[in-house]
Description:
There is one protein chain. The strands form 2 sheets. Strands 1, 3, 5, 6, 7, 8, 9, 10, 11, 12 and 13 form an 11-stranded parallel sheet that branches. A two-stranded parallel ribbon has the order 2-4. It is mainly beta. The chain has 2 helices and 13 strands, in the order βββββββββββββαα. The chain has a single domain (6-185), classed as Pectate Lyase C-like, CATH 2.160.20.
Amino acid sequence: MEHDATLSDASLSHVAWADQHAGGVRLEAVRLVRGDLSGARLEKLRLDDCELTGCELANLEGRGIQATRVRVQESRLTGIAFPEGSLCDVVIRGCRVEFSSFGFAQLIRVTFEDCLMAETSFLGAQLEGVRFQGCDLTRADFREASLQRCEFSRSDLTDLQGVAHLRGAAVDRAGIVANADLWATALGITALDPD
């Protein structure tokens, strides 16, 4: 993979791009099945109208990534780092995304569905129209994040960090009840014993 390379209108499977280092790579209308980009460092990576299925993306570093109209499914994204990136109209379904970072990124109309996202960081990120459906967000970090019209449904929010920054989000009733202690602590409320 070379700097500023562009790949368009392609369907690829089992490509081995692990540990590649390149900047300004652009993929347009690419379907990638079982590709391996683990450990790659791809600054300012651009993905437009792409679909990734069953891919190995663990520890991919993509500072300044721009992803538009992208679908990622049944893939491993453990430890990815997309700081200062921009994701718009993206669907990530059935993926492992734990220990990942979207720090100071902008996420617009992004859906995470049935994903393992434990300890994923959204520190300082801007989220607009983002949906978390059936996700494990245990110990996820939303400190200093800004949320607008975001939804959390059927998701595990245990030990979430930065609860006060969820202002502007909607959480299903089951999630609110299950995390009553978390919300109370964030608001400085002490629970009384029934005695």
